Amino acid sequence: MANANRFDEDHNDLSYEELLAIGDALGEVKSKGFTEAEIDQIPFHRAKTDETGECAICLSDIQVGNYVIKLDCQHVFHCKCLKEWLAEKATCPICREKVKRPEFVIND
Q1: What pTM, to 2 d.p., does this model score?
Q2: Are 70 and 17 in contact (CB under 8 A)?
Q3: Residue 53: in which H helix or E strand, if any?
Q4: Where is pLDDT greater, at 19 or 106?
Q5: CA-CA distances (angstroms) from residue 22 to 18, 26, 27?
Q6: Which end of the chain lies in a sparser environment, N or C, as judged by fewer CB atoms within 10 Å?
Q7: Does 69 fall in a domain?
Q8: How many independent structural domains does the chain possess?
Q9: Residue 81 covered by a domain
Q10: pLDDT score recorded for residue 83
Q11: Mind listing the pLDDT tens digit for each residue in 82-96?
């Protein structure tokens, strides 16, 4: 535990410029989420009466007729909310089950 505290103490005094330099040295951090093309392939529909309740992302009510996405784990979210979430993380916001990436269909 002493080593963890030492790490915190060593890095608490870094300036903003020093932190930026560390970020530059580490390089770009890649998102674990979906690509824009994958997000565009996710099917959505209008919420039915059994899909109402609270969206766990924005905490607003899902109402009948709202555009929603229902994941394989059966959790339902506003379409816009989940698409923004999936751009960052590829898991369900509630149960953390991995969300299956859409399969691309190429029409010739």
Answers
A1: 0.68
A2: no
A3: strand 53-54
A4: 19
A5: 6, 6, 9
A6: C
A7: yes
A8: 1
A9: yes
A10: 96
A11: 999 999 999 999 999
Q: Tally Cβ neighbours within 10 Å of residue 59.
A: 8
**Tens of pLDDT, residues 56-65:** 999 999 999 9
Tell me what pLDDT residue 68 has. 97
Q: What is the SS3 assignment for 70?
A: strand
Query: How many alpha carbons lie under 13 Å from residue 94 in its C-beta half-sphere?
Result: 15
Beta bridge partners of 69: 77
For the beta carbon of residue 36, count every other beta carbon within 10 angstroms: 9
Q: Is 7 exposed, middle or buried (0-12, 13-18, 19+ CB in 10 A)?
A: exposed
* Amino acid present at 21: A
Q: What is the CATH number of the domain that holds 82?
A: 3.30.40.10
- Of 2-11, 34-43, 52-61, which gets the smallest average pLDDT? 2-11
- The structure tokens listed for 74 are 């059966």
- Please check whether residue 9 lies inside any domain of the structure: no
- C-alpha span between 18 and 43 (Å, rounded): 44
The answer as to whether 91 is a domain residue is no
